[in-house]
Automatic annotation (TrEMBL):
<feature type="transmembrane region" description="Helical">
    <location>
        <begin position="180"/>
        <end position="202"/>
    </location>
</feature>
<feature type="transmembrane region" description="Helical">
    <location>
        <begin position="326"/>
        <end position="343"/>
    </location>
</feature>
<feature type="transmembrane region" description="Helical">
    <location>
        <begin position="258"/>
        <end position="289"/>
    </location>
</feature>
<feature type="transmembrane region" description="Helical">
    <location>
        <begin position="301"/>
        <end position="320"/>
    </location>
</feature>
<protein>
    <recommendedName>
        <fullName>Transporter</fullName>
    </recommendedName>
</protein>
<dbReference type="InterPro" id="IPR038728">
    <property type="entry name" value="YkvI-like"/>
</dbReference>
<keyword id="KW-0472">Membrane</keyword>
<feature type="transmembrane region" description="Helical">
    <location>
        <begin position="79"/>
        <end position="103"/>
    </location>
</feature>
<keyword id="KW-1133">Transmembrane helix</keyword>
<feature type="transmembrane region" description="Helical">
    <location>
        <begin position="214"/>
        <end position="238"/>
    </location>
</feature>
<feature type="transmembrane region" description="Helical">
    <location>
        <begin position="136"/>
        <end position="160"/>
    </location>
</feature>
<keyword id="KW-0812">Transmembrane</keyword>
<feature type="transmembrane region" description="Helical">
    <location>
        <begin position="109"/>
        <end position="129"/>
    </location>
</feature>
<feature type="transmembrane region" description="Helical">
    <location>
        <begin position="33"/>
        <end position="58"/>
    </location>
</feature>
């Protein structure tokens, strides 16, 4: 059970990046549909739990440290080749986006120069990847209980100090711009692009254990925890729509409204989530080409990290706008392939 919880915590830490921790992703994919966004949160929970369980079990079954073997297993040789190329490209792009996102957050919160901020994030990420695989998973998992606690405090505060009626909150929420035409598509698209980015690291997590049951339970727990976070954050945003409307980092606004110390703790959580995602994505990119036990692994981490740092000067917003839409479409292909693989293993098709 301890190992399953570790895998689940690391899964959450990997998926929950800066966009989630700031509240902006939840606002666009869930809260913008009013109270129907809560149904979207439940749907996302079911999808994350099912997909997380299956990918972790495949990682355990195939004992691979890269997404390549899993992708070819679920999608076949030819289609798998296309997915493999796109995932590899996206892993690097997300790493670069996290370096730039870390720089933007440090600049906004503490006035640190963007070039220096990106360098700090790159150095922290590269240094972490000099550890072994199990240590990396432990580092990523550490931030999950912290984030759960902070979000729970914010959600409880928001509910008990809510000044809006349910109807008013729903109306204000629906005035926000959304990333999808309806709550069902918003939920599926959110799961989709996160699975596209998280597939490799979840595969690696599954391969660290010999039992498919332990691996699957870890993926399932991670999916449920993600769903709880989504629903809690959604409730907090809906309850405080009157103060978060039009803000870039809505959860930080609520946190600062509680107390500046809570705002600082949330800022630390935000930076931690960006760091977690950067570590997971850079690791996933490098292991596609070099095994972690290979002597050249650390050298490749350093080279790719330096290239990612230079590329981060393009800017966080520009990178995200180009990357996330592509991730969504790729994620749908991966989700279909995982479901088909599950049906095939159970001889449903």
């Amino acid at each position: 059970m301890r190992k399953s919880l570790q895998i689940g915590g690391a899964f959450v830490g990997l998926i929950v990046g800066g966009g989630f921790a700031s509240g902006q992703e939840i606002l666009q994919f869930f809260t913008g549909f009013g109270w129907y966004g809560l149904l979207g949160g439940i749907l996302a929970t079911l999808c994350f739990a099912f997909l997380g369980m299956n990918v972790a079990q495949l990682g355990c079954e195939l004992q691979t440290t890269s997404h390549k073997k899993v992708v070819f297993h679920i999608a076949g040789r030819h289609f798998g080749l296309v997915i493999d190329f796109l995932i590899t490209l996206l892993l690097f792009a997300i790493t670069v986006a996290m370096f730039a996102g870390g720089a933007s957050t440090l600049n906004q919160m503490f006035g640190i120069n963007l070039v220096l901020g990106s360098l700090i994030m790159a150095i922290l990420t590269i240094s972490t990847l000099m550890l072994n695989v199990k240590s990396i998973i432990n580092v990523i998992a550490l931030a999950t209980p912290y984030l759960l606690a902070i979000i729970l405090i914010i959600a409880i505060y928001s509910i008990f100090t809510m000044d809006l009626s349910f109807a008013e909150a729903d109306r204000l929420a629906r005035e926000q711009s959304t990333a999808a035409p309806n709550w069902i598509m918003g939920s599926l698209l959110y799961v989709s692009y996160n699975i596209a980015g998280g597939l490799t690291m979840l595969t690696v997590m599954g391969s660290t254990v010999k039992s498919k049951r332990i691996a699957g339970l870890g993926g399932f727990i991670g999916g449920v925890l993600l769903g709880i976070l989504i629903i809690l954050m959604n409730i907090a945003l809906l309850a405080k729509m009157d103060i978060v409307t039009g803000t870039d980092m809505p959860i930080l606004v609520i946190a600062n409204n509680i107390h500046p110390i809570v705002g600082l703790l949330m800022t630390i959580a935000l930076l931690g989530m960006i760091y977690n995602t950067a570590v997971g994505m850079l690791f996933s990119f490098v292991v596609r080409f070099v095994q972690p036990k290979d002597k050249a692994f650390k050298r490749h981490v350093l080279y790719v990290g330096i290239i990612g740092y230079i590329a981060s000067f393009v800017g966080f917003t520009t990178i995200v706008s180009k990357v996330y839409s592509t991730m969504g479409y790729l994620g749908f292909a991966i989700m279909i392939a995982i479901v088909y693989s599950w049906m095939r293993r159970r001889k449903i098709v």
